[in-house]
Write a structure and sequence with these properties.
Elements (H helix, E strand, L loop, with lengths): L19 H14 L12 H21 L4 H13 L3 H11 L8 H13 L3 H14 L4 H13 L3 H12 L5 H13 L3 H14 L3 H13 L3 H15 L3 H17 L3 H14 L6 H14 L2 H22 L4 H14 L2 H12 L8 H4 L3 H14 L3 H14 L8 H13 L3 H14 L3 H13 L3 H14 L4 H13 L3 H12 L7 H14 L3 H14 L3 H15 L3 H20 L5 H18 L3 H4 L4 E10 L5 E10 L1 H25 L1
Antiparallel strand pairs: 1-2
Helix pairs in contact: 3-4, 5-6, 6-7, 7-8, 8-9, 9-10, 10-11, 11-12, 11-13, 12-13, 13-14, 14-15, 15-16, 16-17, 17-18, 20-21, 21-22, 22-23, 24-25, 26-27, 26-28, 27-28, 28-29, 29-30, 30-31, 30-32, 31-32
Family: Belongs to the crooked-neck family.
Function: Involved in pre-mRNA splicing and cell cycle progression. Required for the spliceosome assembly and initiation of the DNA replication.
InterPro entries: HAT (IPR003107), HAT_PRP39_C (IPR059164), HAT_Syf1-like_N (IPR055433), HAT_Syf1_CNRKL1_C (IPR055430), Syf1-like (IPR045075), TPR-like_helical_dom_sf (IPR011990)
């Protein structure tokens, strides 16, 4: 039979919500009320008591046989015997519990000793504590409680002897401090001092010496406190983890004693001997000290020292963070210590980028540049500067990438030292190993200033051999020859340039060649160049430039103006017949033609050719499938209207024919 689920009409939450925790709690309470507890037994005579004790002891013995190593069973057994006022039996249970392996259980020893103390069996308690500290001397709780018991009993000498026994085991610092406090409670100053002496030998740490020195200060023994600090520095100055703390404490001690110069000397000594990465707190203290007691120079020194620490931490954390090295070097340069500046530069340039990719070297290379400029300008060491440039150029993997800047800086340095042959050698190596446009340009510029024409020609030839597609190089070479009045050489260079199969910016090269011929007044050559250029490309700007050239050459002569009109007409015919889809370029060309004719006073012929501008809408389908419309400008030329009229007549004739056929 199929069960039909019942529909719940009201699904709103009840006003009182019951949690799972409440359900479980209520179930537990009801279960507890039904538990049957055994009836209370009332013992009326000694026989019943003996029977009860026998039964309980048998139960405990059975449990012990089943779980002999369970200390809780032994503790409950002994506590029960104690509750029966049978201390001998209880003591016997404790002794049985400590047999075999259970003697390592310090809980049993504590419970046993507390049992004896609770029942005021002092000698038995002493015996238990004495056995416990012999067997388990590293359990500090035994010693504390043993000493506490003797002190409560007033046995001060006994407590002191226990402390001495404990100290033979070289316990932790807290044990020594408890011994010292014990002696101080009874005003034993000399004893406390002797314990401190043993304490700092057992635990030669900064915190131990500082406690010792504060003890002497508390007892107004300033000279002894200073001796303690001096001993601490002798022992801990080479321990990096402890040195900072003891130096700060010693300086604060001297500051407290109004010995400002001593404190300052300690701070500076510590800053010179402690590694920068571990002296952060020391720098903070020194800055605060100088602000309180020092002059402006002292404060500046403290702040600079703190910044040094910060930069040391940054470069230690990430040696390839060159920005941190730049900041660090800048700080050292403000201080003016040349040896220190040179040391930081050497450390910085030693961190060569791991990957031989130029993007990783672009920041690193400026470390070398700044280093070389420092040696040249500030240190005025010519040989060191030359060595820096040489090492840098040897380090760069020129087969994969290079830096024109470093080559040029090295060459310029040699020129400043009047070592022209050295500069030429550097630039020659640059061209041979890693030729770049900047290097060729600068090398040619240097030779041109020196008037070495033949060297310039050789460099241009080498430049073009390396980069024959560079229109800049061809143009500059031709301009160089033009400046020497070598017109034919310049024209030959231009001709060679435009005959190259690949050029990076051919339009600039043709423009320069045309301007060159125009400047010489060679109109026919210029026209021939334009015609050759039109054979290669019929771009709108080429037509316009050709027409403007003819117009500028007209100078009011009607027959020459016809040349410009002929160019515009050829361009219009080309766009009309060969490229009818380039309507916008054709329209712009006609606008330029109209503007030219306006300057000569005859615009009627061009106006009849101008198109009409029409706004149209183009459907565009989006990614979601919906269609949008985008407006654009279309051009309607005069000859297109005749074509459209013919199409309308043809469509009408076709429609009429369909009607006749239908009837």
């Amino acid at each position: 039979m199929m069960m039909i689920p019942r529909m719940v009409k009201n699904k709103t939450p009840a006003p009182v919500q019951i949690t799972a925790e409440q359900v479980l709690k209520e179930a537990t309470e009801r279960e507890d009320s039904r538990i049957l507890r055994p009836p209370k037994q009332k013992i009326t005579d000694s026989d019943e008591l003996a029977e009860y004790r026998l039964r309980r002891r048998k139960e405990f013995e059975d449990k012990i046989r089943g779980a002999k190593t369970n200390s809780q069973v032994w503790v409950r057994y002994a506590d029960w015997e104690e509750s029966q006022k049978d201390h001998d039996r209880a003591r016997s249970v404790w002794e049985r519990a400590l047999e075999d392996e259970s003697y390592r259980n310090h809980t049993l020893w504590l419970k046993y000793a507390e049992f004896e103390m609770r029942n005021k069996d002092v000698n038995h308690a002493r015996n238990v504590w004495d056995r416990a500290v012999k067997i388990l001397p590293r359990v500090d709780q035994f010693w504390y409680k043993y000493i506490h018991m003797e002190e409560i009993l007033g046995n001060i000498d006994g407590a002191r002897k226990i402390f001495e026994r404990w100290m033979d085991w070289s316990p932790d610092q807290q044990a020594w401090l408890c011994f010292i406090k014990f002696e101080l409670r009874y005003n034993e100053i000399e004893r406390s001092r002797s314990i401190y002496e043993r304490f700092v030998l057992c635990h030669p740490k900064a915190s131990s010496f500082i406690r010792y020195a504060k003890f002497e200060m508390k007892n107004s023994q300033v000279s002894l406190a200073r001796i303690v600090y001096e001993r601490a520095i002798e022992m801990l100055k080479d321990v990096e983890e402890e040195a900072e703390m003891i130096f700060v404490a010693f300086a604060e001690f001297e500051e407290l004693c109004k010995e400002v110069e001593r404190a300052r000397f300690l701070y500076k000594y510590a800053l010179d001997h402690i590694p920068k990465g571990r002296a952060e707190d020391l720098y903070k203290k020194f800055v605060a000290f100088e602000k309180q007691y020092g002059n402006k120079e002292g404060i500046d020194d403290a702040i600079v020292g703190r910044r040094k620490l910060q930069y040391e931490g940054e470069v230690r954390k990430n040696p390839l963070n060159y920005d941190s090295w730049f900041d660090y070097i800048s700080l050292e340069e403000t201080l003016g210590d040349k040896d220190r500046i040179r040391e930081v530069y050497e450390r910085a340039i030693a961190n060569v980028p791991l990957a031989e990719e130029k993007r990783y070297w672009q920041r690193y290379i400026y470390l070398w540049i700044d280093y070389a400029l420092f040696e040249e300008i500030i240190a005025e060491d010519v040989e060191r500067t030359r060595a820096v440039y040489r090492e840098c150029l040897e380090l760069i993997p020129h087969s994969k990438f290079s830096f024109a800047k470093i080559w040029l800086l090295a060459a310029q340095f040699e020129i400043r030292q009047l070592n022209l042959s050295g500069a030429r050698r550097i630039l020659g190596n640059a061209i041979g190993k890693a030729p770049k446009h900047k290097i060729f340009k600068k090398y040619i510029e240097i030779e041109l200033h020196l008037g070495n024409i033949d060297r310039c020609r050789k460099l241009y030839a080498r430049y073009l051999e390396w980069s024959p597609e560079s229109c800049y190089a061809w143009t500059k070479f031709a301009e160089f020859e033009r400046s020497l009045a070598e017109t034919e050489r310049a024209r030959a260079i231009f001709e060679l340039a435009i005959s190259q199969p690949v050029l990076d910016t051919p339009e600039l090269l043709w423009e320069a060649y045309i301007d060159f011929e125009i400047s010489l007044g060679e109109l026919e050559r210029t026209r021939a160049l334009y015609e050759r250029l039109l054979d290669r490309t019929k771009h709108y700007k080429v037509w316009l430039s050709f027409a403007k050239f003819e117009a500028s050459a007209a100078q009011g002569q009607e027959d020459t103006i016809e040349h410009a009109r002929a160019v515009f007409d050829r361009a219009n015919t080309y766009y009309k017949e060969s490229k009818p889809e380039l309507k916008e370029e054709r329209a712009n060309l006609l606008e330029d033609w109209l503007n030219m004719e306006a300057s000569f006073g005859d615009v009627s012929a061009v106006q009849s050719k101008l198109p009409k501008k029409l706004k149209k809408r183009m459907p565009i389908t989006r990614e979601d499938g919906e269609t949008e419309y985008e407006e654009y400008i279309d051009y309607f030329f005069p000859e297109e209207s005749q074509t459209m009229n013919l199409k309308i007549l043809e469509a009408a004739h076709k429609w009429k024919k369909q009607k006749v056929d239908a009837f």
